[in-house]
Specification:
single chain, about 150 residues, alpha/beta, Rossmann fold, seven-stranded mixed sheet, 4 helices, 7 strands, binds adenosine-5'-diphosphate, binds magnesium ion
């Protein structure tokens, strides 16, 4: 599935459609190079879940956690860029953070990847002119939720 994200509004609209359909246990795996628009889409999802404050990029902290009532469901926003090996995911205690929460993962491949999980929505972002293109590959649990429509 290729979705053109010609500007920030288009990224925000995709973020809203994902947020409306997001459930605990899901992963939204956001891949693509530096500046591809991963944090922008993650922020759009978090805002559409009801979070009213500014969302920091987790590039330094690696993991940022959000809990109701500030947003609709427990959420973990992670940026695995700085991990040197997927084994470090265990040291972070990611599984504990994920309990009952949805996960937004930037640089998912640095954490070993999540595409084997049926609840994983894989989104690859690429620069396209002044905007971006999203290439979306849904896990089985996302097929009927179709956030690309
Ligand atoms: N759909 C879009 N159209 C145009 N610019 C965008 C879009 N999405 C993100 N950007 C811009 O791209 C830059 C990098 O975005 P960011 O989300 O921080 O990237 P990443 O987290 O992938 O490194 C920012 O300046 C942001 O405003
Ligand atoms: Mg980022």
């Amino acid at each position: 599935m290729m979705i053109p994200l010609v500007d920030h509004d288009a990224s925000a609209a995709l973020g809203r459609r994902i947020a409306d359909r997001l459930r605990p246990g899901d992963v939204v795996a956001l891949s693509g190079g530096l500046g591809a628009g991963k944090t922008t889409l993650a922020r759009a999802i978090i805002a559409a879940l009801g979070y009213a404050d500014e969302v920091p990029s987790p590039s330094f902290a690696i993991i940022e956690c959000y809990d109701p009532p500030a947003l609709r469901l427990p959420l973990v926003h992670a940026d695995f860029y700085r991990l040197e090996s997927p084994a470090e995911v265990d040291e972070l205690g990611l599984d504990d953070y994920r309990e009952g929460a949805a996960l937004l993962a930037e640089w998912p491949e640095h954490a070993g990847g999540f595409a084997h999980e049926p609840g994983c929505l894989s989104i690859r972002l690429e620069v396209a002119g002044n905007g971006r293109t999203a290439i979306v590959v849904p896990g089985d649990d996302w097929l009927e939720r179709a956030p690309w429509t």
